[in-house]
Amino acid sequence: MRTTYDFAPLWRSTIGFDRLFDLVDAAQQAGTEDNYPPCNVERLGEDRYQISLAVAGFSADEIAITAEQSVLTVEGRKSEKQQREFLYQGISSRPFKRQFNLADYVQVKGAAFDNGLLQIELVREIPEAMKPRRITIDGAPASNVRQIDGKAA
User: Fold this and answer.
1) What CATH number does domain 35-130 carry, 1.10.287.70, 3.40.50.2000, 2.120.10.30, 2.60.40.790?
2) Per-block average pLDDT, block size 10, for the chain (153 residues)?
3) Most exposed: 1, 41, 64, 150, by fewest CB within 10 Å?
4) Domain with CATH 2.60.40.790 in the chain
């Protein structure tokens, strides 16, 4: 069974879709990634999103969030202050790095740490110049158009 796709024919006829093809390639390789810590990605509204990461055992100062162009990176590194002897360790404290690809105009609005969950708020803010706008049509009124008088109902 073939698991990779050849995008060479599309490269010849598309311009500016490099990022899309990179995302597809990354998605094919995503099965081999480590999915720690577990997370939820929610849509809160038409242009609002929230990423929640379960980071039990980490404090806010042990986590770094970086937004760079279209990639959001969350990194965590536990600072061991004391040597501890565990009889059983079920709560992982290994370092992690999770990356999320963001669509155009999606920005990080804030982050909160609550009950072992790191919640990152995202908002899509389309610039005014990119929003659809009505274009007026200039020109002389047509000479053969007559207005019919009528009473309003």
Assistant:
1) 2.60.40.790
2) 65 69 68 79 94 92 92 90 82 89 91 93 88 83 59 55
3) 1
4) 35-130
Edge-to-edge order in the sheet of strand 106-114: 39-43, 48-54, 117-124, 106-114
pTM of this prediction? 0.68
Using DSSP bridges, classify how beta strands 96-101 and 63-68 pair: parallel, antiparallel or unpaired. unpaired
Residue 24 — φ and ψ, nearest 5°? -65, -45
Residue 90: predicted pLDDT: 86
Q: What is the DSSP letter of 64?
A: E
* AA letter at 76: G
How far apart CA 25 and CA 31 sit, in angstroms, is 12
Compute the distance between CA of residue 65 and CA of residue 108 in angstroms, rounded to an integer. 10
B/e letters for 9-31, b = 16+ CB within 10 Å, e = fewer, are: eeeeeeeeeeeeeeeeeeeeeee
